[in-house]
Every structure is written in C-alpha cells, then in structure tokens.
Amino acid sequence: MQEEDKLPFTDHLEELRTRLIRCFIAIAIGAAAAYGFKEVIFTILTQPLIDVLPKGDAIIFTGLPEAFFTYLKVSLLAGLLLASPVIIFEIWMFIAPGLYKREKRMMAPAILLSVVFFTGGAVFGYFFVFPFGFKFFLGFASESLRALPTMREYISFASKLLMAFGLAFELPIFITILAAMGLVTPAFLRKNRKFAVVFFFIFGAILTPPDVVTQILLATPMILLYELGIFGAMTFGRRPLGSSDDEEGDDDTGEEPDDEVATKKDAEG
User: Fold this and answer.
1) Model pTM?
2) What's the mean pLDDT in 61-81?
3) How many other CB atoms sit within 10 Å of the CB of residue 66?
4) How would you describe this protein's topology in the membrane (predicted)?
5) What are phi and psi of 174, to 5 degrees?
C-alpha cells in the first residue's frame, strides 16, 4: 500500500526531471545558435556605454581567456532568452494538471504578461537608464584618472541591472496575484500608496547611480506600475482569506477541480 502511494510521487519527480532536461537542451541549443552572433550581441549590449565613452576609448579585457568566457556568458544569456518560450511551456505543462479551472484561466495570461513586463523593464533600463547611469560613472574621470571598463565587469554589471529592471516591472503582476489570493485588497493598496512611493524612490536610489535623474527614471514607472497593480487587484481580486462568504474559498480546502465536480453533478442528475 505504501509503495502504491509512493508511485504517483515518483512519477511526478520523473516528469519534472524530463521537463528540466528539455529546458536545459533548449537553452544549450539557443546558446549554441547565439554564439555564432556573439560579437553582434555583445556590441548591442555595450552600445549604451560606447556612446558615452570619450573619443578613442574602448572596452578592454585584462586576462587572456576573459574575452572567450565573456562571449560564452553573452551567448548563454541570449540562449536563455531564445529558450524562454520552451521553458514557459514546460513549466505550464508541469503545473497545469494540478490547477483548477479558475486558476488555469488566470495562470496562462499571467505567465504571458510576466514575460511582456519583464522584457519591457529590461528595454526601459537599456534605453533610458543606462545612458544616464554610464554618463554619471564616467564623470569621475579626469586628467589623472581614466576609466578602462573591462568586458567581464561590464557584462556582469549590465546583466544584473537588466535583471533588476525586469523584475521591478513585474510589480503589477505580483500585486494582482496577491489580490487574487485574497492577501491584499484595492483599499489596502490605495491606503498605503504613500509608503509605496517612498519605497520606490529608496529602491531607485539603491539600484541606480546616486543622481536624481536616474532615481526618478526608475521610481516614476514603478509608481505607474503600482497604479496598474491596483487596477488589476480591482479586476481580479477576491475577498481576503477568512471571509465568511468567500465564494472561491473551496479552492484552498482540497476541493476537486471544477471539471471533476461538474462530471459528478451530471452523474447524480
């Protein structure tokens, strides 16, 4: 009896293993394809810095294998981006069987929108924040102090910033999911709006160079995204957990999925 109980769990782990292998294969194929265009991708990533470098300066590498490993990292990042549709599909196919109909209806657009918002955040950081930030950092150069950015340092710094901006732009999705779970309400979000605004400016001060322009460039879209999150909470939110008339509360108590319930009702009828 115990062995029978363990079988579904082992099958679950086997499915997870298979889907992870598919994801890694997709990333490897994407990285191999991107490696053929490594110089082009690297040029695109470094263009915001190249545009503000003094005339005659360039990005350098200080170690013999540095350029090779930097190109590998760039190819891996591009491969991850190319493989993202496969990764999203595999994640969706893994979790979909355990979701209720209502959760499935919400999960699919949430995943797609999260990709759109993440990409939008990275694009915003690349085109609007990078030029101001790099110009600020290079402003410390003088006749006796010269900036010599290396390939490895730039790619590491730029990838972290792009990731941070992408995650920051997931704010409305995160708020909407919390509201759909009943953990926050539109009234709560509106009441604490002033604290959120202060947090966004602090977050901008930590993440961006310490000048007012770049802080405002990050804080302003986050304020707008917060307002968008309130709209999402109003549209998809539910009553807080513990509410007596929580019509969707059965989803959290182990109730069978909607399709099975409907099948049973038809059989009883």
Assistant:
1) 0.75
2) 93
3) 15
4) Multi-pass membrane protein
5) -65, -45
CA distance 5 to 255: 20
Binning pLDDT at 50, 70 and 90, where does residue 211 land?
A: low
For the record, the structure tokens of 195 come out as 């604290």
pLDDT at 259: 47
Q: What is the pLDDT of residues 102-139, one digit of tens each?
A: 777 777 788 888 888 998 999 998 998 888 888 888 88
Mean pLDDT for all residues in the chain = 82
Assess contact for 255 and 248: CB atoms under 8 A.
Answer: no
Check if the beta carbon of residue 167 is closer than 8 Å to that of residue 225: no
Torsion of CA 179, 125, 214, 174, to 10 degrees: 10
How many residues are present in the chain? Answer: 269
Q: Count other C-beta atoms under 10 Å from residue 23's C-beta.
A: 19
- Residue 210: what pLDDT? 63
